[in-house]
């Protein structure tokens, strides 16, 4: 990656960004499912769960929302923005192509399938890439000058 584009983001900051994103995604998801059920007269699948078609539509909506955040000027979801992280093209350090971002989103499934191994892969990868980063040819970086969480002030020892 070209110099001056930030440093590679660590596991902890990426995990925290994901947790922050869950905070806004869960209420939006609940609202969409509730709205969908109301539009269909309360009917859904077994035990009130969304039908497979409704679930596919919900995933498509979330995929488009996430891609919009990634492809936008900040190159990040709200959780990543809060922590000063952004997604960049692994080769240039600039904006990633929309096609690469779409592959990255699909790669989330691949990263999760073998017990989350694809997410943990960044712990020993020299470029801190997960499998979905590799598939989408992206890196997650901390913006140059972004503040870091303060170090622990707990006594050692």
Report on this model:
There is one protein chain. It contains six helices and three strands; from the N terminus they run E-H-H-H-E-H-H-H-E. Helix 2 crosses helix 4. The longest helix has 29 residues. The mean pLDDT is 85.
Q: Can you summarize this structure?
A:
With 157 residues, this protein is mainly α. It contains 6 helices and 3 strands.
Q: What is the 3D shape? A: globular
Beta content? 5-15%
Count the strands? 3
- In what order do the strands lie side by side in the largest sheet? 1-3-2
What is the terminal-to-terminal distance? 38 Å
* Series of H and E elements: EHHHEHHHE
Largest sheet: 3 strands, antiparallel
Which segments are poorly predicted (pLDDT under 50) over 5 or more consecutive residues?
Answer: none
Q: Considering DSSP H and I runs of 4 or more, what fraction of the residues is helical?
A: 40-55%
Number of helices: 6
How would you classify the helix and strand content by structural class? mainly alpha
Q: Calculate Rg over CA atoms.
A: 18 Å
Round the mean pLDDT to the nearest integer and report it: 85
Features of this protein?
single chain, mainly alpha, three-stranded antiparallel beta sheet, 6 helices, 50% helix, globular
């Amino acid at each position: 990656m070209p110099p001056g584009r930030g440093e590679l983001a660590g596991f902890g900051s990426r995990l925290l960004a994901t947790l922050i994103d869950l905070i806004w995604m869960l209420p939006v998801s609940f609202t969409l499912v509730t709205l969908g059920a109301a539009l269909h007269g309360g009917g859904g699948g077994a035990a009130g769960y969304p039908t497979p078609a409704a679930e596919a539509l919900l995933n498509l909506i979330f995929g488009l929302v996430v891609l919009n955040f990634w492809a936008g000027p900040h190159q990040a979801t709200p959780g990543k923005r809060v922590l000063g992280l952004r997604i960049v093209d692994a080769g240039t350090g600039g904006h990633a192509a929309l096609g690469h971002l779409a592959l990255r989103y699909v790669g989330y499934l691949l990263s999760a399938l073998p017990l989350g191994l694809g997410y943990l892969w960044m712990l020993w990868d020299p470029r801190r890439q997960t499998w979905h980063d590799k598939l989408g040819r992206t890196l997650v970086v901390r913006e140059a000058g972004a503040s870091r969480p303060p170090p622990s002030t707990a006594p050692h020892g």
